[in-house]
Design brief:
It is built from six helices and four strands. With about 210 residues, the protein is of the alpha+beta class. Helix 1 packs antiparallel against helix 5.
Length: about 210
């Protein structure tokens, strides 16, 4: 008897998800990225379909952004391995809210930017470049696409909210706030401090924020 063929759930013409085991296990996503050979195939780390679709779409936009910057996106990078160890050794002892803050920032910003960079090369210059990229992140087409997906999911059939002085929307969101950047600096410093304790880097770089 032939094994049952896995059924891919197509999200767009370049992105699909699949569950290897219908009864248990996580969904995986398959993405074809502009300028890259073959597919990127990775786990979504969830067995919930709606969460898997959301994760896959976010990763797709981030991988597209990396590819446009000339970065090869197939290989699992050293920074990713360090963060997985950081989760195991450090985050497991933190509160759920703090863990969610780390994981969200890592998945949206740290991983797309630092994924392919050797941990020893994350110095002051690399971090300055990251924050320059981060400040301009919301102006990128990939960020706009990801935000539109999130906005549609949140509001459902309701019309889009109009921008106001107190409400950030896709049209008036220009850059992350100083408070947000300060939080990200602290999160990145804690990850790099962990790497230093493990002798993966010789020192923790000084992290300056853009003005």
């Amino acid at each position: 008897m032939r094994a049952k063929t896995r059924e891919w759930i197509v999200l767009n013409d370049r992105l699909a998800i699949v569950k290897r085991d219908e009864r248990q296990g996580s969904y995986y996503f398959r993405a074809r990225i502009d300028g890259q050979k073959g597919y990127v195939f990775r786990t979504t780390k969830t067995n919930d379909r709606s969460k898997a679709e959301e994760f896959a779409r976010e990763q797709f936009y981030e991988l597209q952004s990396l590819a446009k910057s000339g970065i090869v996106v197939h290989a699992k990078g050293e920074f990713e391995n360090v963060y997985e160890d950081f989760q195991r050794d450090v985050l497991v002892h933190k509160s759920l809210s703090r863990t969610a803050q780390f994981d969200g920032t890592y998945r949206r910003y740290f991983l797309p930017f630092f994924q392919q960079k050797p941990i020893r090369e994350i110095d002051e210059h690399a971090i300055d470049t990251y924050f320059t990229w981060r400040v301009n992140y919301y102006a990128s087409e990939e960020a706009k696409g990801r935000q539109e997906v999130a906005a549609k999911r949140k509001r459902g059939s309701k019309p889009a909210a109009k921008a106001t002085k107190r409400r950030s929307t896709l049209s008036n969101l220009k850059r992350p706030s100083p408070a947000t950047l300060k939080i990200e600096r602290g999160l990145l410093k804690e990850i790099l401090s962990y790497a230093a304790r493990r002798k993966l880097i010789t020192r923790v770089p000084d992290i300056s924020l853009p003005r």
